Amino acid sequence: MKVSCLPLLACTAQAIRIVQSNDDGWAELFLRSFNDALQATGHEAVVSAPAENKSGTSSLDAEPKDRRDACEYDSCPPNSGAFGSNATRPELNWVNSFPVTSMRFGIERFGPALWDGEAPELAVAGPNVGTNIWVQVPFSGTVGAAAYAAHEAGIPSIAFSTDEGTRHRWDTSPVPPESLVYAELATTLTNKVIASGKPYLPDDVFLNVNLPKASADCDASSVKWVLSRINPGLFSAPDVAWCGSERLPTELKVFQTDGCFASISVGDAADKTTVDAERQAIVLDKLKDILTCLP
């Protein structure tokens, strides 16, 4: 499996302040590899994620409570309080609550503490262990965290998920190639959005991105990006005109197409469905030169 040199990824993108979360837990390797990749390209990336796996918790939000047990993968000791930070890397933080709560703490507490009171300019969630496609979207904590950032905090956001079901602890060595591939792909798209200029995304919008399963035939250099929609939209107004149609392919259609395709859906952060054609068109204009049409 080919892995590109991460320090060379999209170096033309401006370095900005980014808050990260997920629903698999702060010690999940995919999150850590993504953080490493973002920092390698110059971004000030701060992680604020659940202390343990909180998959499927949607948009639940509750004040964190003191832990009695160790965090996932023994990444924090028992009786560590309600939230905490890595002793040697203060940009890595955990919250004993849900993904949305973790994202909120990153936006309001952890990020500003390291950025001299400044707010994040972009929020990213994932890469999730497993896809978040169509009917999975409303239940996903990864999507919930991204939607919270865009809808409640007014911060443009991206939710990344993968066609990968294997979990890895943060200190897995050597790092599995797939973790590096997903980190590279997520960083590449993040930097593309940043390079497009502010505002990075329309108001109240998040991108729901599903990455294909990494393999020898589907590495970071092989992936083709497809603009898609979350729900089928049988009775919806037309989508933005693209690829000779006024109806974008669904995420499920992209997922089921043979080849190495990643879906990018423009999601409404208010209800986690597909946005209108006007806001799709703004994103299309930003990403057009990397997008492809399904065969």
From TrEMBL:
Belongs to the SurE nucleotidase family. Residues 45-73 are annotated as: Disordered. Residues 18-216 form the Survival protein SurE-like phosphatase/nucleotidase domain. It comes from the Eukaryota. This is Survival protein sure-like phosphatase/nucleotidase. It holds the Pfam family SurE. Residues 62-71 have a biased composition (Basic and acidic residues).
